[in-house]
Amino acid sequence: MLMALLVAGSIVMIVPLVWMLSTSFDWSARLEIGFPPRFWPEEPSLKNYQAAFTNVPMLKYIFNSLVVGAGVIVVSVISALLSGYALSKIRFRGSNLVLVMALSTIMIPFEMTMIPQFLLFSKLHLTDSYVAFYLPALNYAFGTFLAKAFFDQLPSSLREAGVIDGAHEFTVFGKIYFPLCTPVVATLVILLFLGVWNDLLWPLLVLKSASKFTIQLGLAMFTYNSGINRFPSIIMAATMVSLVPVILVYLFLQRYIIESIALTGIKQ
Length: 268
What we know:
The protein is mainly α. Helices cover 71% and strands 0% of the residues. The chain has helices at 2-24, 47-55, 58-90, 95-104, 110-123, 131-134, 141-153, 157-164, 169-177, 182-198, 201-206, 215-224, 232-264. The radius of gyration is 22 Å and the shape is globular.
């Protein structure tokens, strides 16, 4: 029964992807998608992909998304690891309150804080800049929670031995604990990368210059550019191109994600 449900769920998720891939190679679907849906292109061609790269600067948008993603990942992972280490190993007074307050921010939908956050960055003249992505990344509450759960599994005797030998707290973290954090770092990297790569709302608010648009804004231009570029198969081709980095990152890091989930016992 469980296997049947898993197979049915897999089919539900895979069929739209296969249809999108087939349509992206179907030149006959450039003006209108045929019905019923076809899973093999009627007129196989690479023209849709050529059109996707010639109509808008796809490579520029992909590069911009990589720049935004790399910055957010670096800031968020460092913040999450340091805060998770402090909450797990140092155990200062009020640490539980700090953890509860950090976790409470997860309960607040982004849509509720979006406008105040945008007004704040606008007053600070930080809109139309990637700094508007990097500063909010300092508060990555879910990463803090995940990192704390991971550090809880590591023995505190390692820190005690380092402190007795006269090592500074940052030395203990950097030379003893950080090399053991590969699984949780891999998990944070892929979760952050997927979140940043697929984000449309925040880039739409803060980015004004077309030269700084991310890949999701570039895809939106295909659809909403005064209705001129509504070519379904070309949109499918551009979307498939945007999925390539996500698939590569997942394939490269999937082993570490499974290890991290097994170690922390967290399911998301």
